[in-house]
Write a structure and sequence with these properties.
The chain has 340 residues and is an alpha+beta fold. It has eleven helices and twelve strands. Strand 3 and strand 4 form a beta hairpin.
Length: 340
């Protein structure tokens, strides 16, 4: 949604991402863009992309954000070198970010791999708050279903009351997919998928796509965590996203025989400090590949580093030309005025 350019902050001289959307676009997209900007400015968490400023000028909506360097989860989750600890660490960090969102009385509503970014330093950023809304909001007020079908909870699909547990469900689906390389509910069309989510239990988690080296006891414990997160009944899921993250963190720490299922205290500092060491190693490897001209295995060109400024290069050139043209007009106007 929108075109992203590389820009420089006038206030700090730092490189930032400038995201622009034409008013002539779909009105609902324009509204979503402004919502994303407004919500983003209210959220202040290390695992959520920062929105620095936004506005509407000359028929365009714009926002400036942190410039991210690293990888979208969607593009790297198929990488066999992306080990189990790294995958689970991503879930822990996203859970912490979602908990902050929920503390702000908001529900993200579109948690999915393409909205999760892993930085080359081993951090995580949750993206795209374009359809976020106040928790306990009833979707029937708008009459619209918003979200991505495979990750939508049964209560979202039935247009019932949606709260933070819908995000817990979606993050559970992300984890399921990262472990099994498939979805817990399948179907030939989006309608079939939604019907399956609403009417039947999920398929069992399988661990045969990637060799994670899980013994039966650990596999069963991890499946229990996943299944609790994607329970059809909201009250059967984790009470909070942070509790979900704590259960995954406990598993990572070796406490998997009796994984947390509810209540108890949660060490937020421990969760917030977990780094994705795999990302650091991968970024270093890609930097070497880029220097030697090797093309990355996920299809993003030499080095494979994905930044917010890599998208829609043709539009970037167009934008630069427009700016140059505007600058030329400004100089011509100045020259004409100074000559009078």
């Amino acid at each position: 949604m929108g075109v992203v350019y590389l820009a420089e902050s006038e206030a700090t001289s730092e490189r930032v991402a400038l995201k622009v959307l034409e008013r002539s676009a779909d009105p609902s997209l324009f509204e979503r863009f402004l919502r994303e900007a407004a919500v983003g400015e209210k959220l202040h968490h290390q695992d959520i992309v920062r929105v620095l400023d936004h506005g509407v000028e000359d028929g365009r909506a714009w926002m400036t954000m942190d410039l991210l360097e690293g990888f979208e989860l969607e593009t790297v989750m198929y990488d066999a070198s992306f080990d189990l600890e790294a995958r689970l660490s991503v879930i822990v960090r996203v859970a912490a970010a979602l908990h902050h969102v929920h503390e702000m009385e908001l529900v993200h509503r579109d948690v999915k791999p393409s909205n999760v970014f892993i930085t080359k330093e081993g951090g995580v950023r949750l993206l795209d708050f374009g359809i976020a809304l106040l928790r306990d909001h009833r979707l029937t007020q708008t009459g619209m279903l918003m979200g991505t079908p495979h990750y939508m909870s049964p209560e979202q699909l039935s247009s019932g009351t949606v709260d933070h547990r819908a995000d817990v469900f979606a993050l559970g689906v992300v984890l399921y997919r990262m472990l099994s390389n498939r979805f817990p509910w399948s179907g030939d069309t989006a309608a079939h998928v939604m019907f399956a989510i609403a009417t039947r239990p999920p398929d069992p988690v399988t661990f045969d796509h990637w060799d994670f080296g899980l013994d039966p006891k650990r596999a069963a414990a991890l499946e229990q965590i996943v299944m609790k997160a994607i329970a059809s009944e909201p009250s059967h899921r984790y009470l909070t996203a942070l509790e979900f993250g704590a259960a995954v963190e406990a598993f990572l720490s070796g406490v998997y025989s009796d994984a947390p299922t509810g209540g108890g205290s949660v060490d937020t500092q421990q969760i917030a400090s977990r780094r994705i060491e795999w990302a650091r190693a991968r970024a270093a490897r890609l930097a070497l590949d880029k220097a030697s001209g090797v093309t990355d295995d996920v299809g993003h060109g030499p080095g494979g580093t994905v930044t917010e400024s890599d998208r829609d290069i043709g539009s970037t050139v167009w934008f630069v030309l427009v700016l140059a043209f505007a600058a030329g007009l400004g100089f011509a106007a100045w020259y004409a005025l100074s000559a009078t």
